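The aim of this short unit is practical: by the end, you should be able to scan a pair of folded records and say something sensible about each. We start with the first protein, listed as its amino acid sequence and then its structure tokens.
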Amino acid sequence: MELQVPPSEPKSTQGFPFEFELGRRMVQELGSSTKGSRDPMTLTNYNIPKSVEEVAIETMKVDRVAKLFQTMAIVRVLEEQEVVDIERLEEELNSASPFEIMDQALALFGTDIAILILNPVCTCFSEDVALIEFAHLTGRPFLVFSLDTGRLNPETYCLFAEVEERYNIRIEYMFPDAVEVEALVRAKGLFSFYEDGHQECCRIRKVRPLKRALKGLRAWITGQRKDQSPGTRANVPVVQVDPVFEGMDGGVGSLVKWNPLANVVGTAVWSFLRTMDVPVNALHSQGFVSIGCEPCTRPVMPGQHEREGRWWWEDAKAKECGLHNGNVNGAASNVISEQMVEVADLFMSRSVSNLSRGEMETLVGKNKRSKSSLVVLYAPWCQFSQAMNDSFNAVAEKLCGPDLMVGKFRADREQKEFAQQALKLRTFPTILFFPKNSTQVIKYPSENRDVDALIAFVQAFQ
């Protein structure tokens, strides 16, 4: 898709439909003669007025002519706009470094582009500060904005101040509509998202303020990476026409979205931050990896994926808020189809038994068991399940024997409803212990899924 990329001024011709068209005709008629020192006043013979009425009339004439010449300048800018083929640009920059991508973005859009820092639902704050560092290194001027939801951690606000001081910038903060927030809290309380999901709260506190901010831009820069979230961001491009939000000109295709870190892995981002001594959120040293609003963020434990610290009470595929719907695989939706993502199976150790639906029904049946079992309910596309692959295989190899069976049960797709009703499944992965001589099912309660913790859990019932 081709997009016109104008200089930063003027930003809009909205509100001047008649003058705009008239100005265009004047440009065509006057040509280059208007580029010199011609004074708009010389187009009309202005005499010294003799009455208040004449003063008013002559003033209106001057204003009218001045507005026409202002519009003529706008027309010239619009006619000289550079046309950019975004799809071709994506191909050219797909293997480029984040620095090159950032430099290109700022060069093309100037003051009509801004960096989103602390995308409070869809990224780790470290990526955002890395973006600012890259922008700073280009030597070009840049703008930064953020979404202050009113529920951020104190450490986050401290980092805002550090970033502003280090880079000598002022972050533009966008706030949610107070009336909408008040209505939500009065109707459902302060923590309704724990009961009915985070989408409504995110829509009010983040998505709508973001829409307002983007209406003043022609492009924005985010910290999305392909390796961030399970099954939803594998195809994030480095630059694209935003398929969801609109820019200042309005309509589909009026906004360009840049993702300079799309092809960079999280470890490389942190190496860059350490090398450049960039300030980071103090919460990172406390086990927080992906940082958002305080009620919806917690530290991750060993064996967990970075996104498991967000909305931990929800299904892994629901961990998108709406800010990046256009990059969710398959559709602009918050929930992706499980049929769309095909990946290699997990827990392939010979010590791990692949259990059928019938075998699981037997385990949760009314008869006492003759042998204990440790079973993981998983989905192979889920990066949270992928993150514990090695640790669970190691546990199986250490514990599997005559008195304990270690197994796996794929609990997505057609088995999901059964797993939710009979096996206490809420999120992937879920670990269950079935003790012998009992009909009870014990759910592993901790988010710490390293080898020692899982072994200690099993041994407590042996």
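Turning to the second protein, read its sequence before its tokens, just as you did above.
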Amino acid sequence: MPSPQVLQPVLKMKVDELFLNWLSEPTTQTILKDYLGLIKSGQSIDLGLGDTKDKRSMTFNENNNVASKRSLTERSSAPLGAPSSPPSTHTLPSGSSGNARVVGPNGRALRRSVSTKKAQVKSEAPVPTALSESIPKFYFPRGRPKANLNIDGLIAKIEKIFSQFPNERATIEDMGKVAKACECPLYWKAPLFNSAGGDRTGFVSVHKFVAMWRKMLQTCHDDVSKFVHLLAKPGCNYLEQEDFIPFLQDVVNSHAGLAFLKEASDFHSRYITTVSHYTYHTKIYFEVSVDLARHNDQAISHKMIERIFSGTVTRDRRLRKDGRLSYADFVWFLISEEDKKTDTSIEYWFRCMDLDGDGVLSMYELEYFYEEQCVKLETMAIEPLPFEDCLCQMLDLVKPEVEGKITLRDLKQCKLSHIFYDTFFNIEKYLDHEQKDPFSVVREAETEGQEISDWEKYAAEEYDILVAEETTTDQYNDG
């Protein structure tokens, strides 16, 4: 039972409502203003209940306001709804007695009467149900619980699988069957194995695994929350880049399509780093020395390369001073360059082009990058479009909210941001866009998301080139 002095939430809401109603009454407002005036003038005022002897008094100085006294006395006997006149500004002569007492209005009685009246009116209406009872739960950070989940039935299936293993212990090779019994994807086998302590002992007993999986079913109610729980460190509800390494290492070791990597163990870490970095951005310490100016046959402008190495979008200062990129920064650059349609890529290139970092691409900044494009076009015997005409085209393309100022939000809302960026710093892709049918570009924008991404296209093309080169080399060696 709650303490008598503590109001229940619903009752407290009602009391607060009645008090606000009383406080908003014109009569109450006038009385409070008069009291405040008396207090400021230093007068003495009695706050009592009718003729009771128990009165509390406040003593002030000699400047008594007779008009206020008369007004308060008359108002205390007037009906609640009677209008009141503002207090007079006349004061007593300085010789007036300083001990004169003002009989104030029956403020407390008035407050009770108003509150009682309001309470009687409000009590006729039904008390509304508490909000916490009428709004259903809508936030499920670990998935919405399933109503008819048969946990004991799922555990029985897992125990049946473990009974097939010696001493009811499963090794990492056996975890594919266990993952299937858990109704999980095949390549969750390593995270399942490690979460049950298999990485420390080399095997998982049925008792440890059942205890782990039962708790998982009781706390995680969808595949996403289960995956995060399996990979994350104990006590964490988020994933870091290194959390993916055991999972990806098992994929490299057991996936049939990656059999060619088994013999190249030195390449394992680079492959895992690339995949995990594509999935999750964090700092990676593998160093790479690469000449970005030669990327894609020198398609990227030197001004943009200088911006990349200036630290705008790179993380490792030590390598940047040496004119090198970390492997993480190179992967980030490559993904952003080959697929400029994603939000992350749009942010990457926006930071590069925003020279003063004010969050807006000004006309000066656009002209700064376009100048080098014009020089490249002239060396190719192609007459460049004047900057003013190019600017009009780009503004029509992006349609910024503020005229003459292009923001990151404008580019994210524009489905043709890749054309915008290529116009200013990638000469090869700019020429490709110029040779395309404008209507086909519009159709591509309308069907965005219905086909594979530009990054997937790039990866497939590079893979085909690699296979062709290896085939040619093998034929030459056999030959």
